[in-house]
Amino acid sequence: MWYVIQTQTGEEEKLVGLIEKMIPKEHYEECFCMNRECVRKTESGYEIFLRPMFPSYVFVETKDPKSLYFELKRVPKLAKLLSDQEDMFFSVTGEEERFLRNVQDAEHVVKRSLVEVDEEGMIVKADGAVGVYLRHIVRQRLRKRYVCVEQEFLGEKRKIYLGIKLREDREVR
Q1: Domain locations in the chain?
Q2: How far apart are CA 42 and CA 33, in angstroms?
Q3: What is the pLDDT of residues 114-142, one digit of tens each?
């Protein structure tokens, strides 16, 4: 089962490294933070960069959350965080985990989805994550190359941003 540890925004990768270094692997299967592909328009095309999908959240997959929780409390940076606030270690529901598995790749990156639009600029067809959650789109910004879907996550409806691309986009690496 997946669990979420809340940390400070911008400290996600650091926390993943700390957990991987200090906690024996027998307490968890995997520890990661999810990123999403974003683009920035340049003169020569679209430059791709990564941004955290869920800022301040780190995901941990474990079969034994109690032992993992006690191990996490031994990590100096986490001991204070976990003792100050009991709500820093959450379980992810089965439906939420399915959503997360559907949108990410093996490296925990949510790739941009290729979309087709009609004459009015509305998305009519999409592959990838956007294709799976097409009916959940609450906002689309073609010019900025993203859509916003509404999805239940950690007990509340959240707006989740997914990157898109059009067939005519030129990518710059």
Answers
A1: 2-172
A2: 28
A3: 999 999 999 999 999 999 889 999 999 99
Nearest Cα neighbor of 146 from 164, 120, 124, 126 is 164
Which of 143, 137, 109 shows the shortest CA–CA distance to 124? 137
Q: Say yes or no to pLDDT of 52 above 50.
A: yes
Lookup: tokens for 137: 């789109």
